[in-house]
């Protein structure tokens, strides 16, 4: 049996070292030993993109167990919105932990819980203007809450999601998910009353009238349409202008609730606080998690107040949801986002798109498209294998990126990314694509 690898004591990485800075082969010897230990004890359901074993993070720098420094453009799957261990977030966590670590807001009046709820309600564009907030532990958990709320408030049973969508892996959330068949394999029957529409095109909206409402279920039995304004796991797919506006119109016409899943696209990542703002659309319910608390476990369902007021006491709750330490991190995160990081995301996103735009012309055999809003950037390749190979070649160069969709690679760095860090990442990504185009292989099976 593999033995545990001792953890390295947390000390700051040497400030004079460049990033990335690889001092061993990757993965290094300690990383390989830890992977063997991990694989003896953890669930094999965890997919693992590549064998990095992080022990420390600072901004966009990640140090692995062998002392290698990586430039992180994955941000924990778009979670570390303010970078690793932002001083303001760390200070807020420490201060709150020293006062109160847990006191369940499900049964008691936790002050910081209400403060976060108000702050989110005030910065979220909800139809009708008046909003209230429910806090959970994660994105999947607030997706589940939104299903319950939509059915309870409307008295209807059916929910429409989209092909390519990812909403989580708990039973209700995975029933809505349609990005990969493997997420459903072996788990049926899934939640009933779920339908999947084509995503992203204005012409595709005809499906609602011509297929769903005409042949499958009447409109007055549909409780909600849930949509990622920009699909995440599905490939960083951006809808056509008019698509989200068209969904809002369909919902208004038939009394259906519009749920915006902003778990990956929100918290400033696209250059606005919420991606829906870029199309001027106000949902009835908006879901947040990932970057809203800079890595602490927090999910939020912000909804029209009249919808949440359908619930009575005990209709829904969570022991840990809105934990005070996570709430403190969220308040610090929102301050940082509004204090300049959203604007930085827009500016650095323009730099990234400009720097990547020439890839399809330079490598037409493998690269198909560059797309994105703010720091939610996807590069489309001709095949899954080539996308995986680019991800691996980037890792070998000290750049952390992550695949998404059938054949894309996403770049989702912290919103603190600087101009020089972006330039370094673009150079390394170009090198990775060139290596794959010239025949370099990806990770060995």
Describe the structure.
By secondary structure, this protein is α/β, with parallel strands linked by helices. Helix content is 36%, strand content 16%. The protein has helices at residues 29-41, 75-78, 87-99, 111-123, 139-154, 171-176, 206-216, 243-254, 305-308, 324-356, 359-362, 384-396, 419-437, and strands at 54-58, 61-64, 69-72, 131-136, 158-162, 194-197, 222-227, 257-261, 285-288, 299-304, 367-373, 376-381, 399-400, 402-404, 408-411. It has a 7-stranded mixed β-sheet, sandwiched between helices. The longest helix has 33 residues, at 324-356. It is globular. The chain starts with 28 loop residues before the first helix and ends in an 8-residue tail after the last helix.
Give the low-pLDDT segments.
1-13
Shape annotation: globular
Sheet with most strands: 7 strands, mixed
Q: Can you give the mean pLDDT?
A: 95
What is the H-and-E element order?
HEEEHHHEHEHEHEHEEEHHHEEHEEEH
The total beta strand count reads 15
Structural class: alpha/beta
Determine Rg (CA atoms, Å).
22 Å
Proportion in helices:
25-40%
Biggest sheet, spatial arrangement of strands: 4-10-9-8-7-5-6
Quickly count the helices.
Answer: 13
Q: DSSP strand (E) fraction?
A: 15-25%
Distance between the termini: 22 Å
List keywords for this structure.
7-stranded mixed beta sheet; about 450 residues; 4-stranded mixed beta sheet; 13 helices; alpha/beta; disordered N terminus
How do you describe this structure in short?
With 445 residues, this protein is α/β, with parallel strands linked by helices. It is built from 13 helices and 15 strands.
């Amino acid at each position: 049996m593999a033995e545990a690898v001792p953890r390295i004591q947390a000390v700051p990485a040497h400030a004079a070292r460049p990033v990335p800075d690889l001092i061993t082969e990757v993965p290094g010897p300690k990383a390989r030993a830890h992977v063997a230990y991990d694989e003896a004890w953890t669930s094999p359901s965890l997919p693992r993109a590549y064998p990095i074993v992080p022990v420390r993070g600072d901004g966009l720098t990640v140090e692995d167990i062998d002392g290698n420094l990586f430039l992180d453009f994955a941000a924990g799957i778009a979670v570390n919105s303010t970078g690793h261990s932002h001083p303001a977030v760390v200070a807020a966590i420490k201060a709150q932990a020293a006062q109160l670590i847990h006191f369940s807001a499900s049964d008691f009046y936790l002050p910081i819980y209400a403060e976060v709820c108000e702050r989110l309600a005030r910065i979220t564009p909800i139809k009708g203007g008046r909003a209230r907030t429910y806090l959970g532990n994660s994105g999947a958990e607030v997706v589940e809450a939104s299903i319950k709320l939509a059915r309870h408030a409307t008295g209807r049973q059916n929910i429409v999601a989209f092909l390519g969508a990812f909403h989580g892996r708990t039973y209700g959330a995975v029933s809505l998910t349609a990005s990969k068949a493997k997420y459903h394999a072996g788990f049926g029957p899934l939640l009933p009353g779920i339908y999947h529409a084509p995503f992203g095109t204005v012409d595709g909206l005809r499906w609602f009238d011509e297929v769903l409402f005409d042949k499958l279920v009447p409109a007055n039995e549909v409780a909600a349409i849930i949509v990622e304004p920009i699909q995440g796991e599905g490939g960083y797919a951006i809808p056509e202008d008019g698509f989200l506006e068209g969904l809002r119109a369909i919902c208004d016409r038939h009394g259906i609730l519009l749920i915006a899943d902003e778990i990956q696209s929100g918290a400033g990542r696209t250059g606005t606080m919420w991606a829906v703002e870029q199309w001027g659309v106000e949902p009835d319910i908006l879901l947040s998690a990932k970057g809203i608390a800079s890595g602490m476990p927090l999910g939020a369902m912000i909804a029209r107040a009249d919808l949440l007021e359908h619930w009575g006491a005990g209709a829904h709750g969570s022991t840990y949801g809105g934990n005070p330490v996570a709430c403190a991190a969220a308040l610090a995160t929102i301050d940082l986002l509004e204090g300049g990081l959203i604007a930085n995301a827009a500016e650095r996103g323009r730099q990234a798109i400009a720097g990547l735009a020439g890839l399809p012309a330079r490598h037409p055999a493998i690269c198909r498209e560059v797309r994105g809003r703010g720091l939610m950037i996807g590069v489309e390749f001709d095949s899954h294998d080539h996308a995986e190979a680019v991800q691996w070649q980037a890792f070998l160069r000290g750049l952390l990126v992550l695949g998404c969709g059938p054949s894309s690679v996403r770049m989702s760095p912290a919103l603190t990314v600087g101009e020089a860090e972006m330039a370094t990442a673009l150079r390394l990504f170009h090198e990775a694509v060139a290596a794959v185009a010239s025949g370099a292989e990806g990770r060995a099976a």
